[in-house]
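Attaching the record inline, Q. Sequence:
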Amino acid sequence: MKKLLMVMTMSLASVLVAQDKTISSADARGKIGDIIKDPSSMTSVMKQLAASDQASFLADVNAAISKMPGSPEEKTSKFLDVNTAALKGAQKGNLTKLLAEVFATVPPESLTAVNESFASGIFNRKADPSKTYTDEEYTKISKDVLAAVQDRTATADNAGVRDTFAILMLIRASNGSPADLRDTLVGELRNEETKTLAQNEWISPALGQGQEKTYDPMLGASDAGSQPNLDMVLAVPFKSAGDALLADLASTCSLNDPSSSITALVGPAFGNPNAMDIADGVDPLSSAALSRLPRTMDPSEKYNPGNNQRGRMTIVPVEESDIYDGQSL
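Structure, as predicted:
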């Protein structure tokens, strides 16, 4: 009886702790003013929201930024900082949905900076040296992201321009490989007029291919506001591999084959002595994670990579502040 009461007490305590970490959409909206003043606080607010509420809240914050006074550079910096912080607070499995919300709700003139910053930073293919992707894997990630963006922008204004900004981010983040990624992604566009414009009039100027880089064709087509000075907005470099989020996108793209480059080249057993293999459900900063035994190749053991149906994470030592709750690599 005493044991039963103890179990019930512990369960109730766990529920209360979980409730303390969750806030309602209404409570979160009351923090929008504070978030605009301090964009970094967006991460902690997002982590307290249910996954089902995160996208709509991000849309509300972006709408508030759109209404604020300020120069194109000031507003674009807010969009960039707030949306980057929001993605770092994504609940498990929710990152692709939130990324689509970014491209659907940030104004086109500010997507000029967002697509470049995301491509060189948090979603760059080489941002985290401990994780490698084949061209086939990166192409699948890109196609899945573009599909999610198109699903969301179907009800947004200037959908074709927004979808093309997502393509630009994915092309830039690929670092030039595979060479046919542009044609592949343009072929995934669902609107034939957008497909023609993107291929013939929008992408080459935006990438500066054969000419000076310019977003004018895209912004003109969307009747957008003034483009910010990107030299001013994109002055802060990408910080560290601990901020990289591409692996989170990969985790939702069924890249679970343990023989793939994502899973086969990680962990102490494969020549990376600074990495630890973390079993599903274990906080990478917990004592349980730090004392985890190395992965085994015994097929009868549950820690064998072939028995893991959800992929595997590799944790490279970073500052604790660089890792957020619920992040899945």
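The beta strands are 276-278, 313-315. The chain has 17 helices and two strands.

More tomorrow.
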